Amino acid sequence: MDPELSDERLMLAYRDGDAEAFERLYQRYRTRLYRHLAYQCGDPALAEELYQDIWIKVIAARADYEPLAKFSTWIFRIAHHRLIDHYRRHAHDVAGRFDDDCEPDELPAPAGVNPAVQAERSAIAVRLSAALAALPEPQREAFLLAEEGGLTLEEIANATACGRETVKSRLRYALGKLRHSLKDLL
Amino acid sequence: MNERDDQPRDPALSGLYREAGAGEPRAAIDAAILATARQAVQPVPPASRPWWKRLRAPVAVAATVMLAVMLSLTVERHPPAPPMPPPVLEEQAPAPVERREPAPVLPHAGQVQPKASTPVSRADNASAKPQALVPSPVAKERAAPAEIGAMEGKRELPPPASPPMEMRDALRATPSTSGVAAPGSPEKRSAEQFEAKQKMPAVAPAMRAAKPAVLAPEAWVEQIRALRREGRLEEATRRLDELRRVYPEFSLPEDLR
Prior knowledge:
The complex is a heterodimer of chains A (186) and B (257). Chain A is mainly alpha-helical. Chain A has a single domain (7-96, 114-180), classed as RNA polymerase sigma factor, region 2, helix turn helix motif (Rna Polymerase Sigma Factor, Chain: A, Orthogonal Bundle). Chain A has ten helices and no strands. The radius of gyration of chain A is 17 Å and the shape is globular. Residues 108-112 of chain A have low confidence and may be disordered. Residues 103-163, 173-183 and 202-212 of chain B have low confidence and may be disordered. At the A-B interface, helix 2, helix 3, helix 7 and helix 10 of A face helix 1, helix 2 and helix 3 of B.
């Protein structure tokens, strides 16, 4: 199999019954998706649960898959919806923060991170994790989709079902806050 | 390119993020997901079912077809029984000499069942009252002597053979009123049987009750012998003629030939 096959072609091959294509696709998105979820929810156990659910959805939706958008946009959109579902079930206030009408900078920061987790990580990782955790969820999601998913503004807007300018605004706010929090490390 | 240029970026922050980010899913989760993915695209082997379950549908279809064929063949080889022959109604008539004369029938039948005087009209106008019916010329001809006899106070009992002849006439005179059934077809025969059954109680219920089924030829022979022994030779001869007519293929004993 051609190693340079695009994500979309690999997914189409898997749809047609090629299990090896899925393994290659999985390796490409394995770390990106997991880190996106881990930083997004701040809980490794919960991130693993969401991570499995998302891949199960990808497997289940293979028969209906059509390359209408980039595979990365598709899978991170699934991740976005899964996160929203989780927030709706367990944290209704967080789910409401993803609305377009809500001004991101006025949102409160989430609760502090677990000290035990902080102790386990390196100093940079702890600082970065804390800085990300301090971001409002929509801003954090926009940053993670751009960094981990490598998505453009249009693709992030498509994945998160909001406007391009909204994504741009969220991303700009996220970068500004992270720069401010990690300025001694930059 | 404009889209990328338009996108807010910070290369230093991205480098720091890449340096710090080390989280990965556990190997067990990787294995579980990959196993699920492989299992999803594997062709499902056909479930091994017992032979009687696999052959249940074909056997059911074959049995149904066979049953339908056998039923159709049975119906074709054994058609419905033909209608009761007319001699059944007249064979026990004690006065066959007068039975073809319709007149004596009607006084008695008219007393019992006024509608019985015009069976044909009854059949055609079952719901009409007898007074309102316009009798056919045949019915008028038959009814006239009866009425005269009734006016003259004659109370002669009509010969029992006449009502069956009336019924025969009625049956013959009420052919396919619907005009749908072909002559001689089973549908027509069934319709005639039904109409005859419907008319019989109105025409002569007492006589119908008194007349059993057709006598067997042997019993008939014994009856003729008994008449001869009693010296009723004329009646014996008449019964013999009837026997010959009803059972033309019956071989008569020597003493009756």
